[in-house]
Each structure stands twice: as structure tokens, then as C-alpha cells.
Amino acid sequence: MENHVNTLWGQFYGWLPTLLSYVGQLVLAIIVLLVGWSIINMITRGMGRMMAASNIEPTLRGFLLSVVGLLLKALLLISVASMVGIATTSFVAVLGAAGLAVGMALQGSLANFAGGVLILLFRPFKVGDSITAAGNTGTVVSIEMFRTVLQDASNDIVYVPNGTLSNNVVINSSQSERLLASVSLLIDYNDDIDKARALLLGLFENDALVLKTPAPSVSFLPRPANVAVTLGFWCAPGNVTPLVAKYSEASIQALKKEGFRLGVTARTAA
Length: 270
Hints:
Layout: H1 2-53, H2 58-83, H3 89-105, H4 107-122, E1 130-133, E2 136-143, E3 147-151, E4 157-161, H5 162-166, E5 170-172, E6 179-187, H6 193-202, E7 217-222, E8 227-235, H7 240-257, E9 266-269
Antiparallel strand pairs: 1-2, 1-5, 2-3, 3-4, 6-8, 6-9, 7-8
Helix pairs in contact: 1-2
């Protein structure tokens, strides 16, 4: 019995250096993890303050801070794992291969994501701007990471992929001090165009939102079956959509009231 106990104590003393070494590595790894985690949080908070001072969009700021934080914490965890003797080479290789496979499968989505980052970073337009891009015209409602949401003159919601916006020409009308808005409709050949001009121009007399210089104008273009009438006026970029809607309705009502025979009506804004 005594010999058995002595044998166990001998084995324990043999394992003791290894055990103490492993415990020391584990304690050191925990300290590194706690200190590193705190440092990473300090770094991300500092970056957040710098980005806020640089007026970077909140959506992009939050995303970049999340990505940086995740990458730094992943590197920290891999380092801590290697400190306690866990093999990380194969794990990193598997993560790299998985990332490559996912990237190839989501090429279109990644293009839209990259476009969203570029839009938020360089800000060719912002929420509230009136833009024309990829055959769509409207007011920017929101800028998301994968798509931009527009509201057109008909109050329809249009979703445009950010990849399309970043790779095509974008006309930002809101960066101009004034814009030319227009309302188009059709009248009969037998209608009095001078009377129509007077009626339409009279609609703007008391509207402070319509610029007096350049003055509103009315033009007529004969067509095979009728006459196209275009009512043009200048206004601030933010007033184009509501004023086009207002004067589309007002023009129709004024002309109908005077007996004009209207054709198919349409609304446009440039």
C-alpha cells in the first residue's frame, strides 16, 4: 500500500511542472484576453469619435466599427488559443476557404454592398436629394447597405441596387440652386391656345414657391391628333415634386372649367 502511494506521489511530482506550466499559460492567456478585449473596445470607441467628427454617415460608421471590432477580436481569440497550445493553422485555413466560397456565391450582393459603402463614404447624394439614375427619378428616402430607396413623382417606392448606382451616371438635381419643373398635357386642335396660355400662367401669380425669374412659360407642340402643352416653371430642388403634382391637377381643373377638350395627361419633372 505504501509503495502504491509513493508511486502516485512520484507520478504527481512528475506531472507537476507540466501542470504548473499549463496553468501559467492559461492564466497568461486569460489576462491577455481581458486586456486585449478592453484595448479593442477603446480603439473602436476612439474610431467612432473620429468618424463622428469627420461627419461620416451613421450607417457606414456603425458598419465599419462592427467590422473592425470583429476582425480585431477574432485575431485576439486566435492568438489566445495559440497561447494555450490549440492548433489554429487548420482553423484559419478553413475560415479562409469558407470566406472565398461565400464570396463567390454572393458576387452580386457583394457588388451592391461595395456600392453602398462607396455611396456612404463619398456621398454623391444624401437622403432628401432628388436624383436621376439607372432610368429612375425620385427623391432619396433612405440609403441602405445594399440598396437605395427612392420615391418618384407618382409616390411609388423604387428600390435601386447600390451596385447599379455606383457604376452608372447619377444626376443630383438637389445640388443646384434651382430646377426647371414641367407639366405636360394635351388639348384639342380647335382649342384657343392664347386663352390656354393665359389660364396656365395665371396659376402662378400668387405662389411664392415658383421663381419669378426666369418666368414661367407655356409652349405648344402640334401632334397628329392633338396639341401638346408644356407648362414650365423654376423652383427650389426640394419643391419640384409637390409643385409638379399641384400644378398637374390645377392645370387640368382650370382648362376643363373653361371647356377645353383634354387628351391624355402626363406629369414630368426635370
